[in-house]
Specification:
Largest sheet of chain A: 7 strands, mixed
CATH class of the largest domain in chain A: Alpha Beta
CATH superfamily of the largest domain in chain A: Type I PLP-dependent aspartate aminotransferase-like (Major domain)
CATH architecture of the largest domain in chain A: 3-Layer(aba) Sandwich
Number of strands of chain B: 4
Helix content of chain A: 25-40%
Structural class of chain B: alpha+beta
Number of domains of chain B: 1
Number of helices of chain A: 14
CATH class of chain B: Alpha Beta
Order of helices and strands of chain B: HHEEEHHHHE
Oligomer: heterodimer
Helix content of chain B: 25-40%
Strand order of the largest sheet of chain B: 3-2-1-4
Shape of chain A: globular
Distance between the termini of chain B: 21 Å
Number of helices of chain B: 6
Shape of chain B: globular
Number of domains of chain A: 2
Largest interface: A-B, 24 and 28 residues
Structural class of chain A: alpha/beta
Largest sheet of chain B: 4 strands, mixed
Radius of gyration of chain B: 15 Å
Radius of gyration of chain A: 22 Å
Strand content of chain A: 15-25%
Distance between the termini of chain A: 29 Å
CATH topology of the largest domain in chain A: Aspartate Aminotransferase, domain 2
CATH architecture of chain B: Alpha-Beta Complex
CATH topology of chain B: Sufe protein. Chain: A
């Protein structure tokens, strides 16, 4: 077993990384905290905490309004954050970066503007069997309103999308495809570049839900040719309450506003309102300025470490974890697609995932248990729930070992 | 109440031997042919489902059974509940629901009236695990629904 202090084979010192995350230093139930619930939310490096503190301590003011110095500084910080996000996902323009509360709001925004304008009776929206509720329900809502319907790409037993079935689903009625990039339950990385190209051959735009992807792998929205790409700040080591909708400028321009209010207008009279330019047209009201600043600090943090090194570290950990969990008697991994990342979902013979969660928590190990907001996927897999360990850049092999030791305690207790 | 820093041995306070036994070998785990009362319970937080069957004659529960999937706490709770309400009047069973609910939510001391809940007092430890209270009470909410002869699925999230 390697020591926690040893730099891993990919040339990145996880001990130093861990020192950046104050929350990881604590004990829970008398045991060192082993935080393996990163797909739910990631912990925050000091750089993010400091950025929030500095913003509120030094720059806080409302944006795009005042002529005073603090307002200029706050506006600058907010727009700098947008530019940071633009570079992070290689968007062509900062006008294509819309700040939202989270990925869910990004999907709802597209459903309620683009979807409502484009969908009619008999039209179809294509999603997949592995979607989070946030990429199902917004489409159900707009489909119901417009007389359109949802079509669902099936998955294999290993948890990969059936691409030939996807090809068959793309038809003359398809108006939009909305697909998860990296599954929160299975860890499957979907071949989104190929899937976008397939849709584009039929003139169909594609939204990618990148909630689980942006912090595990490099994302280049232009290389993918994604029409829309949504993600959230808090899984990317940033604060909660800030997310991003990327949209191609041409599409965003055509779309009606989402919410009305301040900041999204250029002029208002009681007779007529002229909407603001992109991206402000979609940012009604005072935005989460500190959240954007914190998100930019998180992006800077992981960019400084290097996404390729993070990906390599996590891939090594995933391989280690896959082997280690496979050695636990009665344990079955759920989600074994060839292309996957960061997620280890599993069930254990005769033990419900909630009991697993409670027992390992007593050993200091935080994992997620339940249906992971993907009930249709659970029905497809024929299981009520899974236990899920999900990895981040600060996790170690020793933490996987702690999980495995805790799972042996689960076995002792229940068999 | 916080559990911060409690030693891991406290797990046995939740998973008592009786509970583990009922989880391994749930009693009354069957449907009742010609049941006079039937209710469905659902916990949307974990996806657990439970079907409860009662055979009631002259306002007395002659037989009780359940089917479904769930965690050890919810399965053991349903198993022990169906055992303990047999022979009770509907009104007595309603009273037990109330006492059980108060015990697992930490609003009553089961030892103050041990005769009322009897063996069910083993679920007292649940009160220290707020995330698991619904697991223990799902069967009881479903029982109350069956007693009140409501036809809808009872959810732990409607209280």
């Amino acid at each position: 077993m390697t020591s926690i202090a040893a730099p891993s084979q990919v040339g990145f010192n996880v001990r130093w990384i861990r020192e950046d995350f104050p929350i990881l230093r604590q004990t829970v139930h008398g045991k060192p905290l082993v935080y393996l619930d990163n797909a739910a939310t990631a912990q925050k490096p000091r750089a993010v905490l400091d950025a929030l503190m500095a913003y509120y301590s030094e720059d806080n003011a409302n944006v795009h309004r005042g002529v005073h110095l603090l307002s200029e500084r706050a506006t600058q910080a907010f727009e700098d954050a947008r530019a940071t996000v633009q570079r992070f996902i290689n968007a062509a323009s900062a006008r294509e970066i819309v700040f939202t509360r989270n990925a869910t709001e990004g999907i709802n925004l597209v459903a309620q503007t683009f979807g409502r304008a484009r969908l009619g009776p008999g039209d179809e929206v294509v999603i997949s069997a592995m979607e989070h509720h946030s990429n199902i329900v917004p489409w159900q809502m707009v489909c119901e309103e417009k007389g359109a319907s949802l079509r669902v790409i099936p998955i294999t037993d290993e948890g990969a999308l059936q691409i030939e079935e996807y090809e068959r689903l793309l038809g003359s009625h398809t108006r939009l495809v909305s697909i998860v990039h990296l599954s929160n339950v299975l860890g499957t990385i979907n071949p989104v570049r190929q899937m976008i190209a397939m849709a584009h051959r039929r003139g169909v735009p594609v939204l990618i839900d990148g909630s689980q992807a942006t912090h595990h792998m490099a994302v280049d929205v232009q290389a993918l040719d994604a029409d829309f790409y949504v993600f959230t700040g808090h899984k990317l080591y940033g604060p909660t309450g800030i997310g991003v909708l990327y949209g191609k400028e041409r599409l965003l321009d055509e779309m009606p506003p989402y919410q009305g209010g301040g900041d999204m207008i250029s002029s208002v009279t009681f007779e007529k309102t002229t909407y603001n330019v992109l991206p402000y047209k979609f940012e009604a009201g005072t935005p989460n300025i500190a959240g954007a600043v914190g998100l930019a600090a998180a992006v800077d943090y992981i960019t400084a470490i290097g996404m390729d090194r993070i990906t390599a570290h996590e891939r090594e950990l995933l391989a280690y974890g896959t082997a280690a969990l496979s050695g636990v008697p009665g344990l079955t991994l759920i989600g074994t697609a060839p292309e996957k990342a960061s997620v280890l979902s599993f069930v254990m013979d005769g033990v419900h995932s909630h009991d697993i969660g409670t027992v390992v928590d007593q050993e200091g190990v935080a994992i997620r248990t339940g249906h992971h907001c993907a009930q249709p996927l659970m029905q497809r897999l024929g299981i009520p729930a899974t236990a899920r360990a999900s990895l981040a850049l600060y996790n170690t092999r020793e933490e996987i070992d702690a999980l495995v030791a805790a799972l042996h305690k689960v076995r002792e207790l229940f068999t | 109440m916080t559990r911060r820093g409690l030693p891991a041995s406290d797990l046995r306070e939740l998973y008592q031997e009786v509970i583990l036994d009922h989880n391994r070998r749930p009693r009354n785990f069957r449907a009742i042919e010609g049941a006079s009362r039937h209710a469905e319970g659902y916990n949307p937080l974990c996806g657990d489902r439970l079907s409860l069957y009662l055979k009631v004659e002259d306002a007395v529960i002659k037989d009780a059974s359940f089917q479904g999937s769930g965690c050890a706490i919810s399965k053991a709770s349903a198993s022990m509940m169906t055992d303990s309400v047999k022979g009770k009047t509907l009104s007595e069973a309603r009273g037990m629901f109330e006492q059980f609910r108060q015990m697992v939510t930490g609003n009553a001391d089961p030892l103050a009236h041990p005769e009322r809940l009897g063996k069910l007092a083993v679920f007292e430890g649940v009160r220290n695990y707020p995330a698991r209270v619904k697991c223990a009470s799902l069967a009881w909410h479903t029982l109350r629904s069956a007693i009140d002869a409501k036809d809808e699925v009872v959810s732990t999230e409607t209280e």
